[in-house]
Amino acid sequence: MPARLALLDSRPALSDLDGTTLEHWAETNGQPRYRARQLYSALHRRYVQSLDEVTELPVALRSALVQDYRVRTLETRVHLRSSDRSEKVLFGLADGQTVETVLIRGRNAGGTRRNTVCVSSQVGCPAGCTFCATGLSGFGRNLTGSEIADQVIYFAHQLALEGDRVTNVVYMGMGEPLLNVGAVSASVERLTDAKGINLGRRSITISTVGIVPQLRRFSEWAGQTNLAVSLHAPNDELRSRLVPYNRHFPIADLIAAVRDYTDETRRRVSFEYVLLHGVNDSMEIGRGLVALLKPFGGYAHVNLIPWNPFRDGHFVRSEGPDADAFAGLLRAGGLRATIRYSRGLDISAACGQLRERRSG
Ligand code: SF4
Fold first, then answer.
1. Ligand 1 pocket list (CB less than 6 A)
2. What is the Å distance from ligand 1's center to 253 Cα?
3. Final residue of a domain: which of 23, 46, 68?
């Protein structure tokens, strides 16, 4: 268990408090209850980041609040904007640790705007995937539900100022969400709260390397939330080298759990596959992938992600014709496959890179 750092800011965060607690605070401070409702609405429907924005509260009340509370669980350390309009923020937590969050702007097939926030669920990551900057940096601690939800709220606030909104959330930043199920589940509840940001569960995707016991209960606690599985190799020998957790939960167990999930829910699963040149992108390995996933029929979709280089990363990115040939082989084998080039390479937008860069 990692040692907990001393709190740099010991004030509780208002975003961490539910409506009942805020009403209790109002009563004990001689305020009418509707002040609590005003504050709750400002926090969760207007996504305020500062009490200066809550102008419906008297100035004296805001000053009193600021003595006792932070507004959010996160403070912005670095905010980078890419030439492709993706953005990345390094957030500081109350104990001085840092996490990264990315906003990816795009369009749906129909042309409507799609603003996806990629959140972290842990400080660092215990999974230790060998191609991942976060995995190589070790594990700090689990995030709380509010620390996860506040990453989304930060960008919801910014987009609201632009007349836009968050449309999707993916748990694909730092951390393995299924090793922090309590907080991840709490954050999903917060993000789907009808009195708050009110996202649909189907617009949220949780990605896992395959922590099989938690995966087997996924539909119980995640409901209609989408599932993505970080596969990266079709055989145990190679996958254990890339994703060390495979030694705990080998491919046969993982695939059996995902099959039971698709049989039960009739929902499609994304399989994430980082393309590493000369490691997992050969035609032979591609045929192995087809054999492994073909039984899923239309319930499997493979996302091929050319690897993003980082300092101390010892792989070569597979892209262009190599990536096209691999995708073509999967499609010829009957799988649905898409190549997803990462956005924001000029701002180190892939998982763990900004934090790594700031610490080096
Ligand atoms: S790829 Fe994901 S699960 Fe693997 S080490 Fe990186 S953050 Fe953790």
1. 125, 127-129, 132, 134-135, 174-176, 209, 351
2. 19
3. 68
Q: Is the pLDDT of residue 9 over 90?
A: no
The reply to whether 238 falls in a domain is yes
Query: Tens of pLDDT along 167-225?
Result: 999 999 999 999 999 999 999 999 999 999 999 999 999 999 999 999 999 999 999 99
CATH number of the CATH domain containing 54: 1.10.150.530
Same domain, residue pair 155 and 184: yes
Residue 125 resides in a domain: yes
Atom of ligand 1 nearest to the CA of 134: 6
- Amino acid identity of 131? F
In a domain, 6, yes or no: no
Give the burial class of 64: count Cβ atoms within 10 A of its Cβ; 0-12 exposed, 13-18 middle, 19 or more buried.
Answer: middle
Same domain for 57 and 199, yes or no, is: no
Q: How many domains does the chain fold into?
A: 2
Answer positive or negative: Cα dihedral of 130, 136, 138, 143.
negative
Minimal CA–CA distance to 73: which of 54, 42, 88, 94? 94
| CA–CA distance, 184 with 156 (Å, rounded to integer) | 18
Within a domain: 1? no
- Among 176, 239, 241, 315, the mutation site with the greatest number of ligand 1 atoms within 8 A of its Cβ is 176
For residue 125, indicate whether it is catalytic: no
Counting atoms of ligand 1 from 1, which one is nearest the CA of 122? 7
Rounded to whole angstroms, how far apart are CA atoms 35 and 70?
17
Residue pair 144/73 in contact by the 8 Å Cβ criterion:
yes
In which domain, by residue range, is 340 found? 75-359
Ligand 1 atom at minimum distance from 243 CA:
4
Q: Are 211 and 85 within one domain?
A: yes
Residue 147 is among the residues annotated as catalytic for this protein: no
Give per-residue pLDDT as tens, 42-60. 999 999 999 999 999 999 9
